[in-house]
Specification:
Number of helices: 13
Radius of gyration: 21 Å
Helix content: 25-40%
Largest sheet: 7 strands, parallel
Strand content: 5-15%
CATH superfamily of the largest domain: NAD(P)-binding Rossmann-like Domain
Bound molecules: 1,4-dihydronicotinamide adenine dinucleotide
Order of helices and strands: EHEEHEHEHHEHEHEHEHEHEHEHH
Structural class: alpha/beta
CATH class of the largest domain: Alpha Beta
CATH architecture of the largest domain: 3-Layer(aba) Sandwich
Length: 332
């Protein structure tokens, strides 16, 4: 199949090329938007990443250009209008699991880095400043960690944190036995009330949009640590900034941001950041942000490339895919 691959960086090209056996891949650096969609004309499939835009307008333009398959290089599909894709007869495939360990380990890296202020210590020591004032952390051992979304990544995160001696509590509308062995399921108010650290691992959908808002923050323990490696819009960033300013929130670790599409994955070091909310976040000494890199391990890139190619081949051979994202699936 002829595949138009959007939002590609050198590492995407390397891994996808190595995993490809039969397809004709065209790599495009730009994000997929209504302006770049015509680049896919004459291709059978597009292969987008997390910040590509797949709304009704873009999907209609892709279908007009002959595209039949949307082969996502991600597990999340919140950026795809599944209803529009279905109406247009487009098949959407995803990579359901590529390495929950990659994201879980980065989550724990954020917790540890933030708690022990490694980013501040690194700069201090390089500057010949060996003072400890301002670097005080806490023992993770014995602390209650609240996991919102106890699926693959949430459960692996819980498993790692169990090794630190944390007490795990979790909230998920669909509880599973695996997490139940590691910790205890509670409702959201109890999770907010008891957790010293709260880590988000739920998908973004209308139910989870702004799970962490002003009301939720008001229920949390003073000095709570908030970690989000899931999707930016699970958090109302403005409410979190207010929580940081008042001291209610003790620290924040983010790998995702509500409006990250205009920022992440690009070198903007010579540019003026015009997003004032993001710029405000950067001013806090107790906020640690990474640019959506939790997935970024060799193993995860290999798995993403392999499954993406398998999805495309399966579609070519059978006209459908096991890893389909249908309307029925999106509702479940
Ligand atoms: P998963 O599907 O295995 O787990 C998600 C869990 O969230 C499920 O158990 C589900 O029941 C639960 N859930 C659904 N609605 C909920 C709600 N209203 N409140 C609480 N929990 C709810 O997905 P997985 O693989 O664990 O991924 C979780 C999220 O991590 C993905 O949706 C994606 O947004 C994000 N992610 C981030 C990456 C990064 O690089 N930062 C990479 C990969 C995924």
């Amino acid at each position: 199949m002829k595949v138009a691959v959007f939002s590609t960086k050198p590492y995407d090209r390397t891994y996808l090329t190595n995993s490809n056996t039969t397809h004709e891949l065209t790599f495009f650096e730009p994000r997929l938007t209504i302006h770049t969609a015509p680049l896919a004309d004459g291709h059978d499939a597009v292969c987008p990443f997390v910040n590509d835009e797949l709304d009704s307008e873009v999907l209609t333009r892709l279908a007009y250009g002959g595209v039949e398959l949307i082969a996502l290089r991600s597990a999340g599909y919140n950026h795809v209008d599944i209803r529009a894709a279905t109406d247009l007869g487009l098949t959407v495939a995803r990579v359901p699991a590529y390495s929950p360990h990659a994201v879980a380990e980065h989550t724990v890296a954020l917790i540890l880095g933030l708690n022990r202020k490694l980013y501040r210590a690194y700069n201090r020591v390089r500057d010949g400043n060996f003072a400890l004032n301002g670097l005080l952390g806490f023992d993770l051992h014995g602390k209650v960690v609240g996991i919102i979304g106890t699926g693959k990544i949430g459960s692996v995160t819980a498993e790692v944190l169990r090794g630190f001696g944390c007490e795990l509590i979790g909230y998920d509308p669909y509880p599973n036995d695996y997490f139940a062995e590691l910790g205890t399921y509670v409702d959201l108010p109890e999770l907010f009330r008891r957790s010293a650290v709260i880590s988000l691992h739920a998908p973004l959908n209308p139910d989870t949009y702004h799970t962490i808002d002003e009301e939720a923050i008001s229920q949390m323990k003073d000095g709570v640590m908030l970690i989000n490696t899931s999707r930016g819009a699970l958090i109302d960033t403005v409410a979190v900034i207010e929580g940081l300013k008042s001291g209610k929130i003790g620290s924040v670790g983010l790998d995702v941001y509500e409006e990250e599409g205009d920022l992440f994955f690009e070198d903007l070091s010579g540019e003026v950041i015009t997003d004032d909310v993001f710029a405000r976040l950067l001013t806090f000494p107790n906020v640690l942000i990474t640019g959506h890199q939790a997935f970024f391990t060799e193993e995860a890139l290999q798995n993403i490339a392999d499954t993406t190619m398998e999805n495309i081949t399966e579609y070519e051979d059978t006209g459908t895919v096991t890893n389909i994202v249908s309307l029925e699936f999106a509702r479940s």
